Amino acid sequence: MNRPSTRLVLALSLDGRLAPPQGGAAQIGGHGDRLVLEEALAWSDAALLGAATLRCHGSTCLLRQPQLLAARQAGARPPQPVAIVASRSGSFADGLPFFNQPLRRWLLAPESVAAAAAQGRGFERGVPMVGWSASLAALADLGIARLVVLGGAVIAGELLAAGLLDELQLTLSPQLLGGPHSWLPAGLAVPEGRWRLLEQRLLDDGDLLLRYGCPAAGAG
Ligand SMILES: NC(=O)c1ccc[n+]([C@@H]2O[C@H](COP(=O)([O-])OP(=O)(O)OC[C@H]3O[C@@H](n4cnc5c(N)ncnc54)[C@H](OP(=O)(O)O)[C@@H]3O)[C@@H](O)[C@H]2O)c1
Question: What is the average pLDDT value for the chain, to the nearest integer?
Fold first, then answer.
């Protein structure tokens, strides 16, 4: 099935946590991490995030770097990737800043919820969630060739378990957070094999970018 190329982008502590022990919004990466996040957004046609992440942060990341915006403009691409929120409930607090960001917003949700989203409620389009494979194929049909996945752990885990993540772009930040919020849900069955290192870059404040490509099928 045709589907977008996918890249998971996360900032992690050295002990693999994506949020502090108490949960909620985390500021894990530094300035350099923000720049590489924007590079990934500039690469993408759409950025997918889980509803819980959106509820925690209230908004999503915008591309702001002038040279990245100029490159997209030169390529006749919209300034920002489409923001796609995955949600089963479709329920968000009124007045979430996200709904005032200068973005196209799509909701990936069960059919009835997605249909309601298409009739207002702050989303321009509802995309039916009919399983990750088929829904990613539907996104490809809508012109999404490159998809950045912004987390959180639940969404990352579902896509990884389904073998639908092509790249992992992880910023390792030199701090230990402890607590239960690993970047993948505990007990997840993940595909086997060694990921291929595609890029390593030292960012500022000791942050380290690591980008890996998924193991070739059948590689052990
Ligand atoms: N460090 C980082 O780079 C980073 C990045 C992202 C997030 N985070 C952190 O991660 C935490 C949030 O992550 P999380 O793992 O709790 O949640 P999440 O992955 O952001 O979102 C989970 C939600 O996604 C929706 N969902 C899940 N599976 C779905 C499916 N198959 N179809 C449709 N919708 C689906 C559900 O929304 P409904 O509840 O609406 O049904 C579910 O509650 C926060 O603490 C955030 O700060 C950190």
Answer: 94
